[in-house]
Amino acid sequence: MSPCWVTSSWVVAPHITRYYLLNRNRETKPYSHVSPIRTSILATITSQQDASSNGAGLFLPSQDSPTTLTRFVLENIRSSKAPEDIVDLISSIQFACKKIASLVSRAGITNLTGLFNEGKSINIQGEEQKKLDVLSNQVLKNALKYSGKMGVIASEEEDVPVTVDESFSGTYVAVFDPLDGSSNLDAAVATGTIFGIFKQEVSCLIEDMADNIEPSQLHCLASTLQPGSRLLAAGYCMYSSSTMMVLSLGHGTHGFTLDPEVGEFVLTHPYMKIPKRGQIYSFNEANYHQWDPVLQEYIENLKSGKNRSGKCYSLRYIGSLVADVHRTLLYGGVFGYPGDKKNPNGKLRLLYECAPMSYLIEQAGGKATNGKQRILDIVPNTTHERQPLILGSEEDVDELMHVYTKYAAKLQV
Ligand SMILES: O=P(O)(O)OC[C@H]1O[C@](O)(COP(=O)(O)O)[C@@H](O)[C@@H]1O
Fold this sequence. Notes:
The chain is 36% helix and 16% strand. By secondary structure, the chain is α+β, with helices and mostly antiparallel strands. The chain has three domains: 5-53, no CATH class; 69-270, 2-Layer Sandwich (Fructose-1,6-Bisphosphatase, Chain A, domain 1), CATH 3.30.540.10; 280-412, D-Maltodextrin-Binding Protein, domain 2 (3-Layer(aba) Sandwich), CATH 3.40.190. The structure holds 1,6-di-O-phosphono-beta-D-fructofuranose (FBP). Residues 127, 156, 177, 180-183, 284, 319-321, 337, 347 line the site of 1,6-di-O-phosphono-beta-D-fructofuranose.
């Protein structure tokens, strides 16, 4: 008998022995063993079933009639809080977001992490496009195209606004960032899709185009350059520990969680209200030295407690706009990507980042400004125009605006 067998049996034996000793008194349990807790839940359900459904199937109040996103939109239409067509648009967007959620969650398995076209594909903002930037853009464009309601689409990943092809054209404008925060994707950090819907002021039919905009096509461009105050609907879908859609049709901001068991967005956060004041600030402080002295002082005061609340604030910054705004909406406080010496207009794009997020925050009782003006009042000059963004709890944004006004003279603004 070879010496190695002797060694290996001594190695294996202890484990078998240990397992046997541990389990010698335990009866072997069948896979379908029912734990006492589960038994009591089933008992409760059965008694509820008998009591309330006259035997017509299982009855669990909250699960029995969940408000899905589609049902929510239909109810808004029925109470004429939203135009009829919006249900087709929101259904297309929710389908696209479910698809993008699945692509993002499986990116590591399906070789969808990393750069598109080996990093040779640069979008008009000068950013290397990720594979999922390009794919999410296509998914959303197609979904909107087949809604049959879309006239013009403006996307972070499209150099200029594009129309869907003629046979599908409609009278709405969609602006979107198909995969915001995609620089965090390969690290599996939260990302999201941001969107806004406008009514198209002029009807026009054009091809996907490069950079030579024909005069007749200027109308098309014009129909996308609308201020956020004219949004009919706005929202984001966050791809994180859970997939959440936060939406406003102009009557409050509402949160829906994707239930993977049924593949439906279910209303979980009706009428979200941002706290009047928070205790969290969310800025990329690496840019601190590029900021104006007023903002530097404001942040120092938040940290030191020398602010109207007298409390010391904590810093939270994910570096994904959707995730940072979502947390601010729930917990309150202030999020900002201000202008600075390096980027006087900051980094975020007015049309499909700042405006939809500001619309949601205002509908939830918060405020959003570029430091001088309400974001929703700003009329964009170009599709990819950047604007400084400060948004959050009313009292937090008011305090910052107060400091700016007080020091306006000092800054010769
Ligand atoms: O890394 P920085 O400079 O703090 O910028 C972070 C910001 O840039 C973004 O990633 C830009 O978004 P995109 O990924 O859509 O270009 C935002 O999500 C985020 O708020």
